[in-house]
Amino acid sequence: MTSAPVVPASSDPPSMISARGLRKSFGQRGKKGQGTEFEAVRGIDVDVQRGVAFGFLGPNGAGKSSTMRMICCVSPVSGGDLRIFGLDPATHGPEIRARIGVCPQEDTLDTELNVWENLYVYGRYFGLPRDVVKGRIDELLDFVQLTDKARAKVDDLSGGMKRRLTIARSLINKPEILILDEPTTGLDPQARHVIWDRLFRLKQQGVTLVLTTHYMDEAEQLADRLVVMDKGVIVAEGSPRELIERYSTREVAEIRFGVGQNEAAAPQVSDLADRVEVLPDRLLLYTEDGERALQEVLGRGLRPETTLVRRATLEDVFLRLTGRTLAD
Ligand SMILES: Nc1ncnc2c1ncn2[C@@H]1O[C@H](COP(=O)(O)OP(=O)(O)OP(=O)(O)O)[C@@H](O)[C@H]1O
């Protein structure tokens, strides 16, 4: 006997977060005292479905944090429509905040308190009864692998441990959505992998993750779906794989000539690839077969200082869409 398939209640799951034409502007004072408006988010549409990890990828200043702050109900919407759990942040802020967890870009831990106390104070702030908070702290310290640091001072923790504590703190109210602004910025590779592993487990437990990052590897590792943001607008949306397939070839041959020689060499290789990008320090040849393109470069008597064939990444997508690298 075969068991009945599990049929979802609806083929179209409800959006946890839905934005239509969402805008954020900041007033600025000009030199002569006149007010001007700066638009950090310029009319974006976003739908985040339950249980996914949704990423906002973009360079500094793209408008990611401004978007997150509106979703977290700490910054009012300037225009358009935003719904979290179908609710309007302007009228249902406390209700929404009770159901989300927020892990801000900067650690805002209380250095006067130890690890355990940081979680306790936060739990009490959420109105959880003492016994419930205590049980929850045990679970969370275990989850972020800080049980043996419960009585340690915050200042004695490594950067990765502080991040894990901040994540634990953001989970105290068992949020349905966890919002993470640049979760691993400033951490070393090993600490980043530990964080990714924990976030992956949360996703398996059904928590919807919304994260911003300017690391393309982080977006590729964590995000099921992502939007690429630049200068306040969304320039592309899809899964990491879809975006790479849509906007790049499979492989990239990177060739570096000496300083100042890359641009001059570009016309001599332009017919060897679907597309050639000229960066100050290298040429990128977009092609399905990078090794073959490289052999043809060498066959023409050109002698790059270094060469590399790699698979295309989200960085290539970003470069194609904006003409800039994520680090610019
Ligand atoms: N309170 C504010 N007042 C004025 N301008 C602001 C304010 N907050 C952000 N901005 C501007 O809005 C733009 C978008 O900033 P935002 O922090 O949303 O970008 P981001 O993509 O999150 O970048 P980062 O990775 O640096 O946080 C930037 O030009 C920033 O200077």
How would you describe the overall organization of this protein?
This protein is of the alpha/beta class and 328 residues long. The chain folds into 2 domains: 15-24 and 43-238, P-loop containing nucleotide triphosphate hydrolases (Rossmann fold, 3-Layer(aba) Sandwich), CATH 3.40.50.300; 249-311, Alpha-Beta Plaits (2-Layer Sandwich), CATH 3.30.70. The protein contains 11 helices and 13 strands. It has helices at 64-71, 89-99, 115-125, 130-143, 159-170, 189-204, 216-222, 240-247, 262-269, 290-299, 314-322; strands spanning 15-29, 35-49, 53-57, 79-84, 100-103, 177-181, 208-213, 225-230, 233-238, 251-256, 275-279, 282-287, 306-311. A 6-stranded mixed sheet has the order 5-6-7-3-8-9, sandwiched between helices. It has a 4-stranded antiparallel sheet with strand order 11-12-10-13, covered by helices on one side. It is globular. Mean pLDDT is 91; it is low at 1-12. Bound molecules: adenosine-5'-triphosphate. Adenosine-5'-triphosphate binds at residues 26, 38, 40, 58, 60-66, 214.
